[in-house]
Amino acid sequence: MLIHESHEDVPTHAAGKEGNMRIHLFKPVIAEYPHARFPGVVVFSEIYQVTGPVQRFARQIAGHGYVVAAPSSFHEFWGPEPLAYDAEGTDRGNEFKARKNLAAYDEDAKLCISTLLSLPNCNGMIGATGMCLGGHLAYRCAFDARVAAAVCYFATDIHSRTLGEGQMDDSLERTGEIGGEVVMIFGKKDNHVPPQGRDLIRRTLHEKGVVCSFYEIAGAQHAFIRDELSKGRYDPAVSKVCFEMLLETFNRALRSDLGPRTNVEQKIEIVC
Prior knowledge:
Blueprint: E1 2-12, E2 19-29, E3 38-44, H1 52-63, E4 67-71, H2 87-99, H3 102-118, E5 122-131, H4 133-141, E6 147-153, E7 181-187, H5 195-207, E8 211-217, H6 236-255
Parallel strand pairs: 3-4, 3-5, 5-6, 6-7, 7-8
Antiparallel strand pairs: 1-2, 2-4
Helix pairs in contact: 3-4
């Protein structure tokens, strides 16, 4: 599908601070069907905001028939432009990530969902995805009952509870609030989220009864889907496979009218 790109600047109020957040929008277009409606997906970026790789990721999703909203997460400290993939940009992004109030992250997610739902070409079904910091934000976005599915790429800081101001987030404790489906994707060589951290996230999801899939790809490192300045970590073959996981999840959870989930345990016969 063809894509129309635009943006909306929406007011923010979290933590007693008035401001504006730019939401980058990527909308599928079918010329013969001007009133077509599609599911919406929030794409949360890494610490560099909406960079070239994040835009290309958003366009890929939009091209498969989803209205995509990608927020500039550090609007309290920086403009909508991306940070550079260099030492200065990395330091600045990590500083902003630690300074931002947790309630402000959550407000951003709610505003993105509400913006998608307000668009005439969104059909009311919402998913979330993101990478690195954005993977964690997609996880928290799934606390919102309006989110039917979230696909989280190498989500940082969940295991260490260190997101945001004060570095005392409650993402693990709130995991039971997730009502939709979650897909967690990590590389086994991800040194930002060590094996014990990944085990903690997986165990928490299972203990809280969240419908989830958990993938660890042998050989993959952190940031393996970033196709620009990834410091030698970009893996296009693995990225393709993971994108198919995303499409399978969103096509099933957002395009189908599944009705309410029941808690009836499925009895599976042991057969060969």
